[in-house]
């Protein structure tokens, strides 16, 4: 069967990730897609990460590890891409998780365009998880697919580095991940830069399901909000010279970057930069600036209200509190599964109270 399926190489860059690397590797090894290879790039770890992966290699025959001199996540991913076999490459951060059907669904989505070389990659949705693998929020779920280069300048549809599956030849053609961002102290934006380079030449498909568990913890790159904001400015500026963009589009793209930076700067206690970004956001794109700001405020408040309902519902569904990311239905929101999920003795296993409606 695997002779008729393209090879997928999972590239996991790791640096001092002993707390999570085993769970991450096992989530990759548990994929339902059969033609799989897992390649861990140990970026000069100083903890037990390498030993943990080497032990797993004895158990998982399609798992390999390569140790390289520390050079950052972008270089580690690029090395993994070079070492991968032809077919697809899927990147997974060393502290994140995948739902078992993640790769299978992405390959199926791209198989719908078999024979059309204009399709180069596929992304999925994600949930935020804590250090115990328990999800606590859904990421924004988008359905944009095809050629959405300009839209991706305005909004980061993919969200993180663990959601993308890409043709290996496409990843190599666009130059892989840019390590210069990390060298400038603004790492964390390499993913969006890579995605935009793909969208300049190819289309990207989507599977609108929560198939990635994106872990949030004190050591994760996503906690450095100010660096992420500065990185996004650098990314947008790199693509403003694209000939498909007119002056109005460039202003909107810069305005969107400032919109995204407002909360990040504020949470980093850089209040002057936050206010400055708010002013520039509204000045660069007054109409969309106001609409987007109000919409963002609405959804920000709505998500907080839904999360409170989720906490209340957990008191009535205590069995749900023990369910980790891998046990949840990726096609349904976290809120719907928390509020409407009935205890097994009331509605039967995996049945909702609304099933009979």
Low-confidence stretches: 314-321, 339-357
**What would you report as the Rg, rounded to the nearest angstrom?**
21 Å
CATH fold description of the largest domain: Spore Coat Polysaccharide Biosynthesis Protein SpsA, Chain A
Give the strand tally.
9
CATH fourth-tier homologous superfamily of the largest domain: Spore Coat Polysaccharide Biosynthesis Protein SpsA, Chain A
Task: Give a quick account of the main beta sheet: strands, pairing sense, barrel closure.
Answer: 9 strands, mixed
Count the DSSP helices: 14
User: Into which percent range does the helicity of residues fall?
Assistant: 40-55%
- By secondary-structure content and strand pairing, the structural class works out as alpha/beta
The second-level CATH architecture of the largest domain is Alpha-Beta Complex
State the distance separating the first and last CA atoms: 41 Å
Order of helices and strands: EHEHEHEEHEEHEHHHEHHHHHH
- Counting structural domains, the number is 3
Task: Give average pLDDT, whole number.
Answer: 85
Give the CATH level 1 class of the largest domain: Alpha Beta
Which shape, going by the Cα principal axes?
Answer: globular
Instruction: Report the sheet-strand fraction.
Output: 15-25%
């Amino acid at each position: 069967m695997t002779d008729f399926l393209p090879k997928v190489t999972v590239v996991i860059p790791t640096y001092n990730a002993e707390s999570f690397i085993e769970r991450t590797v096992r989530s990759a090894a548990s994929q339902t897609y059969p033609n799989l290879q897992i390649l861990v790039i140990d970026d000069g770890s100083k903890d037990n990460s390498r030993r943990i992966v080497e032990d797993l290699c004895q158990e998982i025959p399609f798992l390999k590890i390569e140790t390289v001199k520390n050079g950052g996540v972008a270089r580690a991913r690029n090395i993994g891409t070079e070492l991968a076999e032809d077919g697809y490459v899927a990147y997974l951060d060393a502290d994140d998780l995948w739902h078992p059907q993640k790769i299978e669904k992405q390959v199926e989505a791209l198989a719908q365009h078999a024979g059309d070389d204009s399709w180069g990659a596929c992304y999925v949705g994600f949930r935020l998880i804590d250090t115990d693998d328990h999800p606590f929020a859904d990421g924004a779920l988008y359905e944009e697919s095809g050629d959405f280069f300009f839209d991706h300048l305005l909004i980061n549809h993919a969200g993180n580095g663990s959601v993308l599956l890409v043709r290996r030849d496409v990843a190599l053609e666009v130059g892989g991940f840019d390590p210069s961002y990390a060298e400038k102290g603004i790492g964390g934006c390499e993913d969006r830069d890579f995605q935009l380079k793909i969208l300049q030449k190819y289309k990207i498909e989507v599977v609108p399901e929560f198939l990635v568990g994106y872990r949030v913890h004190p050591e994760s790159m996503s906690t450095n909000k100010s660096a992420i904001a500065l990185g996004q400015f650098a990314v947008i500026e790199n693509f403003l010279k694209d000939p498909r963009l007119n002056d109005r589009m460039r202003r909107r793209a810069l305005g969107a970057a400032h919109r995204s930076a407002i909360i990040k700067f504020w949470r980093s206690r850089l209040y002057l930069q936050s206010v400055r970004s708010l002013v520039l956001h509204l000045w660069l794109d007054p109409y969309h600036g106001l609409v987007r700001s109000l919409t963002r405020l609405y959804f920000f408040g709505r998500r907080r209200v839904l999360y409170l309902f989720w906490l209340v519902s957990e008191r009535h569904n205590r069995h749900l509190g023990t369910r980790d990311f891998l046990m949840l239905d990726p096609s349904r929101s976290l809120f719907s599964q928390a509020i409407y999920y009935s205890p097994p003795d009331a509605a039967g296993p995996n049945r909702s109270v609304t099933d009979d409606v």
